Amino acid sequence: MHTSKQVLDAIGNTPLVELRRLVPSGSARVVAKLESANPTGSMKDRVAQAMVERAAADGRLRPGGTVVEYTAGTTGVSLALICAAQGYKAHFVFSDAFSDEKRHTMRAYGAQLTDVASDHKRITEQLIKQMIATAAEISRRPAHWYCDQLNNRDGEAGYHPLGDELWEQAEGRVDAFVQAVGTAHSIHGTAHTLQRHNPQVQIVAVEPAESAVLSGKPSGSHQIEGIGIGFIPPLWRRSEVNEIIPVATADAKAMARRLAREEAIFAGTSTGANIVAALQVAKRLGGGATVATIIVDSGLRYVSTDVYRT
Q: What confidence score (pLDDT) does residue 66 get?
């Protein structure tokens, strides 16, 4: 153990846990990075730090400036952490489609929020694009820097260390990596490093079955927060992914509940989707192989939602 000089030094180097009860006999080993151990309880601390630090380094974000972003809340919470730690202001575009815990946490860090109303709390392409347009308009104000995560190429490097950590903690054995897709930063950034260690590692993307646009299906509405934006993410690279597994919202929520009860891992719905897909891959690969995935964030962000109010 070491003492961090400041809170941002505590980002990364999260534990790796092996699932014991959810994995059937004869399946591959399933390991997961416990990203809820990051300062805000999410993997997005990594990407937020990478994007803000790069913008500050090249002068796009000036001292005391305002960071502007559209967010389902998880990236917003992480950006709010970075802003509070480094003395920036924060103005985020949010929606009632996402959990109240995220709203309250962003405000606790000092962020200002502008809301875009959803259609009965459904996550749709129309909602996301309206949030993006609102954030773009706000960003035109003086001393405001538009993070624009979907188009921000600086974010992917934030996940390069995660790939190294996975490989080392899994004792040099990762045969498949499974990750849900929002911006595509995390799947591509982690895969980039894993493939340096094992060029044959299988990269498996996860998306909501109700809006499986990566699989070529029509855009739809779903309730898996943080992924499935309803259109192809600008930084998505299909050629670098071996397989796409759609997971239904109901199955992702049910798996999140099982994960808490059977593995004592408290996480959100996108993590549930990751585990559903990882178990499918593990069954196919069989004993002797290792499937890695990510515990994206803490279930503490979802206690007010129907994921844990059943």
A: 98
